[in-house]
Design brief:
This protein has 245 residues and is an alpha/beta fold. Helices cover 44% and strands 9% of the residues. It is built from 10 helices and 6 strands. Helix 3 links the parallel strand 1 and strand 2.
Length: 245
């Protein structure tokens, strides 16, 4: 959101992971351009998605989105901050998971170094033209400084560890499968709403609890949190935030 705001671009949203709605949005934009006699080749048009959505734990259909962006002559930006290190045969993210090629199927790839890499900062991957533009015009370059050598070294060490130890990725996948299998047991009181590919697991109260008051729902979440904490499991409940806001 910060990057979109700084770009001062006109933003049009499509329904979450809904490829048909994305197509409808792009068709309406094309019709408007034709009516106003705007040349689409004179505009910088981007589709922006996350490889793994941090607020939902869902993976977008990148294979279909890549076809649509090529059909409508858009560029695709994929934020791999939460998918890098967990998705794909080599942990390179959602693009690799779908067998897509960086800088061909997605022109720009961004990712935070604060998740699976365990450092601070971020990375933008693209063509030479994209990288040069980022280097010379990006807010981080103009108003900040280079990453400290220690943090850069830590990021490089993490990348080497992921590349040289495929067993780490296998462990993530096996652990993920075990946890999802346990959470989908009929006796489990919450509903899993994240994709099984996601290493971030999102839980909600089941639909039969929807008729309860907000206070009752919050109390259920807080009781689960307290029980987990007593058993040494760290878990976050949004109950206090909901009640205070």
């Amino acid at each position: 959101n910060t990057g979109v705001t700084l770009s001062r671009a006109k933003v049009v949203y499509f329904r979450h992971n809904d490829v048909e709605d994305l197509r409808s949005v792009l068709e309406r934009i094309r019709e408007t351009d034709l009516r106003l006699k705007r040349n689409s080749s004179d505009q910088r048009l981007f589709i922006v998605v996350e490889g793994l959505y941090k607020n939902r734990g869902t993976v977008p259909p990148l294979d279909e989105i890549a076809k649509i962006k090529a059909e409508f002559c858009y560029r695709l930006i994929v934020d791999e901050s939460f998918s890098f290190g967990t998705l794909g045969p080599n942990g390179r993210g959602a693009l690799e998971h779908y067998g897509l090629t960086p800088m061909v199927d997605a022109e720009i790839i961004t990712l935070s170094l604060e998740n699976s890499i365990g450092s601070i900062g971020g990375v933008c991957v693209g063509s030479e033209e994209v990288v040069d533009h980022q280097r010379l015009s990006g807010a981080g370059y103009c108003f900040s400084a280079s990453a400290p050598p220690f943090l850069a070294s830590a990021a490089i060490a993490s990348l080497k560890r992921i590349r040289n130890n495929p067993a780490l990725l296998d462990s993530v996948r096996k652990n993920r499968e075990v946890v999802y299998r346990a959470l989908r047991a009929p006796s489990f009181p919450l509903e899993v709403v994240s994709d099984e590919l996601s290493a971030m697991i999102f839980l909600e109260l089941p639909k039969q609890d929807a008729d309860k008051s907000v206070e009752e729902q919050v109390q259920i979440l807080d009781d689960i949190r307290d029980r987990c904490l007593r058993q040494g499991v760290a878990i976050v409940s949004t109950g206090d935030y909901i009640m205070n806001n």
